[in-house]
Design brief:
The complex is a heterodimer of chains A (282) and B (159). With 282 residues, chain A is mainly α. Chain A contains 16 helices and no strands. Chain A has two domains: 18-92, no CATH class; 100-277, Hypothetical protein af1432, CATH 1.10.3210. In chain B, strands 1-3-8-9-10 form a five-stranded mixed sheet, with no helix packed on it. A five-stranded mixed sheet of chain B has the order 2-5-4-6-7. The chains are: A mainly alpha (282), B alpha+beta (159). The interface between A and B is large, with 38 and 36 residues.
C-alpha cells in the first residue's frame, strides 16, 4: 500500500512538463494569430493546460466559477495573461516526461494525451455533446495520475504484472489491489488539489468506468470511449498496453455502432498528420 | 539508417544500410515482407480492415486500411525486384482490450481482413505475433531480413 502522505507530497512536487512553449511563442510572435490560435496551441499540452487552469482557479484571481478550458481562461483573464502563465509554467523547469513504471519514455504520455483529446473531441462531435471543451481538456489530462503513480508502479511491477498476466486483472484493478489506489483516483486527487471543476474531476476519476453507474454520464462515456480507441490505435501506449476493460454497454448507451467507431478511427487517421505537424509528434 | 513507418503508413527499401521500424502497434497490424534474394523489405502499418467505410479517406490515406494498403505494399516491393514466391511474411499486432469480444474487436477484424486477402491470393504467413493485450514495436533489417519485435515493458527480441 502507498501512504497518502507520500502521495500528497509527490503531488505537490509534480513538475509541469514544458511541451509547446516554442510553438506558443511562434504563434504569439505572428501578428496574424487570433486568440483562438493561441488557445489551440496551449490546449494541446496536458500539463501546461492543467497548470494554467490550476493557476487561474487559485484564489489570487478571485474567479467566481472554476475555469474549465483554456478558452474559458482566455475569456476570463485575457489572452496576454494566459500566454504569460503558459510560458512561465512551461519554460521554468525541465521536462519530466517519462513514467518508467508504465514503460513510457519521454513524450509518450504527451502523445497519448493529445491523441485522446483529439479523439474525444471527435466522439463529442459525433454525439453532439455540448461540453466539447471540457471533454477535450479532461481527455487530455486524464492520465496525470500516472505522473505520480509511475514510481510506485515500477516498484511493484512484478506483482502487478503477475495479477494482469495470470489472474485476469485489468492494469487498473492491479494498481488498486497492490498500491491501494489507481491512477484515475490519483488523477482526481491531483486535479482536486489544483482546483479543477467538479465535473472535470469526476470525468478524470471515472475515465475507466470502474463504477458502472457512471456509464450513463455521456461526458464520462465519451472520454472513456476515446481512451479505448487510443489504446487500440496505440500511439504512446505504455507497458499497461490494452489491459483495461471494454464495456459493451457504453456503446449501447451512447447509441454508437462498431461502424461509428471505425469511422471515428478513420477520421483520426486523416487528422493525425495535422496533429503531428502541429506538435512535432512524429 | 532507420526508416520510421508511422500509423497508416508504409515504407519499402532495398538499401542494405537501412532498417525499417514501426512503433507501438495496438489493434493495428504491422505487416512485414521480405525477399531474401534481392534483399527488398517493407512494413505496412494499417489501422482498419476495409476501405469501403469511406472511399474518400482511403484515397487520401490508402495505408490506413488493409484492403487498400496491402496490395500497395506488395506492388512497391515488386517494383524493386521482389517476387511473390520468394517473399517471407511476418504479421504483428491486432491486440485487443480486455473483454473486447465480438463486433467491436477491431484487432481481430484487422487480422481477419489480412487473412482473407492472403487466402484469396495464396500468400502464406511465415510467422506471426498477434492478439493479446500488449503493444508491439516491429523492426526489420534490410541487409539480413532479421525481424525484431518488442512488446512494451520488455526487451527487443529477434524472431
Amino acid at each position: 500500500m502507498t501512504s497518502l502522505q507520500t502521495l500528497m507530497k509527490q503531488i505537490k512536487d509534480l513538475t509541469p512538463i514544458p511541451a509547446v512553449a516554442h510553438q506558443l511563442l511562434a504563434v504569439v510572435d505572428n501578428p496574424d494569430s487570433s486568440m483562438e490560435d493561441i488557445a489551440n496551441v496551449i490546449q494541446y499540452d496536458p500539463v501546461i493546460t492543467a497548470s494554467v487552469l490550476k493557476t487561474c482557479n487559485a484564489a489570487y484571481f478571485g474567479l467566481k466559477n472554476p475555469v474549465e478550458s483554456i478558452k474559458d481562461a482566455v475569456n476570463m483573464l485575457g489572452t496576454d495573461q494566459v500566454i504569460e502563465l503558459a510560458l512561465i509554467k512551461s519554460g521554468a523547469r525541465a521536462l519530466s516526461g517519462s513514467q518508467e513504471g508504465y514503460g513510457l519514455i519521454e513524450g509518450d504520455m504527451w502523445k497519448y494525451s493529445v491523441s485522446s483529446a483529439v479523439v474525444a473531441k471527435l466522439v463529442a462531435e459525433k454525439l453532439s455533446l455540448k461540453n466539447k471543451n471540457v471533454i477535450f481538456t479532461s481527455a487530455l489530462i486524464k492520465d496525470i495520475g500516472k505522473n505520480v503513480l509511475g514510481n510506485h508502479v515500477a516498484n511493484a511491477s512484478q506483482e502487478i504484472t503477475r495479477l494482469v498476466d495470470t489472474r485476469n486483472f485489468s492494469f487498473l484493478e492491479a494498481e488498486k489491489k497492490i498500491l491501494g489506489i489507481d491512477h484515475a483516483e490519483l488523477g482526481a486527487m491531483i486535479t482536486k488539489m489544483w482546483k479543477f471543476s467538479p465535473r472535470m474531476i469526476n470525468i478524470i476519476r471515472h475515465h475507466h468506468l470502474t463504477d458502472e453507474s457512471k456509464i450513463y454520464d455521456k461526458d464520462i462515456a465519451a472520454v472513456y470511449l476515446a481512451d479505448c480507441i487510443c489504446m487500440m490505435i496505440g500511439n504512446g501506449v505504455g507497458s499497461d498496453g490494452l489491459s483495461y476493460r471494454f464495456k459493451h454497454q457504453v456503446m449501447k448507451n451512447l447509441g454508437l455502432s462498431a461502424a461509428d467507431v471505425l469511422m471515428i478511427i478513420a477520421e483520426f487517421g486523416i487528422n493525425m498528420q495535422e496533429v503531428d505537424t502541429l506538435l512535432h509528434m512524429a | 539508417m532507420k526508416q520510421i513507418v508511422g500509423v497508416a503508413d508504409m515504407k519499402v527499401s532495398n538499401n542494405p544500410k537501412e532498417s525499417i521500424i514501426t512503433y507501438s502497434l495496438g489493434s493495428c497490424i504491422g505487416l512485414v515482407i521480405y525477399d531474401p534474394a534481392v534483399k527488398v523489405g517493407g512494413i505496412l502499418h494499417y489501422m482498419l480492415p476495409e476501405s469501403s467505410i469511406d472511399k474518400t479517406k482511403a484515397t487520401a490515406r490508402p495505408y490506413m486500411f488493409a484492403d487498400s494498403g496491402i496490395p500497395r505494399l506488395f506492388k512497391t516491393a515488386y517494383n524493386l525486384g521482389a517476387a511473390k514466391q520468394r517473399m517471407t511474411i511476418y504479421v504483428a499486432g491486432g491486440a485487443e482490450i480486455l473483454d473486447q469480444a465480438g463486433f467491436f474487436n477491431i484487432g481481430k477484424r484487422n487480422y481477419m481482413a489480412l487473412k482473407k486477402m492472403f487466402f484469396k491470393n495464396n500468400v502464406i504467413i511465415n510467422k506471426q505475433d498477434v492478439g493479446g493485450n500488449t503493444n508491439r514495436t516491429v523492426r526489420i533489417e534490410i541487409a539480413t531480413g532479421d525481424i525484431y519485435v518488442k512488446t512494451s515493458g520488455a526487451k527487443e527480441v529477434r524472431i
